[in-house]
Amino acid sequence: MRNLYLRIFVSFWTAMVLxxxxxxxxxxxxxxxxxxxxxxxxxxxxxEASSVLAESGVPGLRDWLxxxxxxxxxxxxxxxDRHGNDLLGRHVPDFLRARFGRGAPAGxxxxxxxxxxxxxxxxxxxxxxxxxxxLSLLRLRRGPLGIFSSIETPIITAITTLxxxxxxxxxxxxxxxxxxxxxxxxxxSIAAGDLGVRVSSLIxxxxxxxxxxxxxxxxxxxxxxxxxxxxxxLLRDVSHELRSPLARLQIALGLARRPNANLEQEFDRxxxxxxxxxxxxxxxxxxxxxxxxxxxxxxxxxNLEELLETLIDNARVEAEPRSIRIQLHAPGxxxxxxxxxxxxxxxxxxxxxxxxxxxxxxxxxLAVERTExxxxxxxxxxxxxxxxxxxxxxxxxxxxVAQARDRDSGGYGIGLAxxxxxxxxxxxxxxxxxxxxxxxxxxxxxxxxxxxx
Length: 453
Prior knowledge:
It is built from 10 helices and 10 strands. The chain is of the alpha+beta class.
């Protein structure tokens, strides 16, 4: 049963059914025991009355009846003679007289009036003189639920309810508290810095909301671990990337302090390294801003064809000196709702990479496809491509396929990471694959619907 609400409902419903079942069974058992006791008492009364009549006659039977009648209250104990009269001279109801008196037809059993009375035939008493008397018990009629009116029934009901409810509630509380206890212990472990703790393996075969919560907790813990590791790697990479231009700056300053130093050349080198350092810091800040959860995009209608044409015009500054042609194929390119500046930056990173790693005289292709739900922008180059194991990692910050080559071309491994963040902020995604005939193709998927908050 997957639904925790139904599990709780069925548990309490089962408890109530068990309470009712045990109560009815116990009450019926007590009623049977009471009936056996009453039958035993009736047999005893009949035996005593017969013995008294045989030993002491009618006067002794009368004295015995006077003694036993109060003890039988609220039921009425009668001894009737053959005329239907009571030995104590008490009033005998007509239906009782008709039942045992001479006026009753042989074998006739007249219907008893609904006056809440029941007639119990106990025994025929035969005197030494062969006179016949009838011992009869007249008692209150008990309805079909009369057995529930005994004083034992509420006590049994209370005890049964208490026992069954205690057992069911204990098992239910244990069933609910165990996964919560595991979750609490795991939360404390995470707070203490142990991000490797997992809970779903401790839940067992459960499939209810608590099991789903355990799975979500494990996903959260894994996500936290991945984020923390990513931040640690980012810190190490940033430190490494910043150390390189700083080291070159220190070298340039040391060379500039030499007596015979070419100051103009060293100042140019210092200026170049300072520019590279400023560019790197700007890339890091841009990536950090995109990771801010509180960031909100400035939504506007962006015509993809116009945006790509502007990108191509800017990229020709790098492409034309190397005879690289950029072709655009965007028939019926849609307009999407997004942040124009961020989209421009994301696509520019992809296009500049394609131009940078394309051989001289090659062609870089841009294409826009439209589906019912999204627009797909593909940038294809004819360069060396990327090793298959690195296709998913090229969108990670500071990851470079060929580090030396990327540094020589001015890259820091941040551009594609920014592209991936921008696509995610727009509710889309980005991916890369190698072309069968060589080169790399990067595809950005952007939804045509509203921006995600």
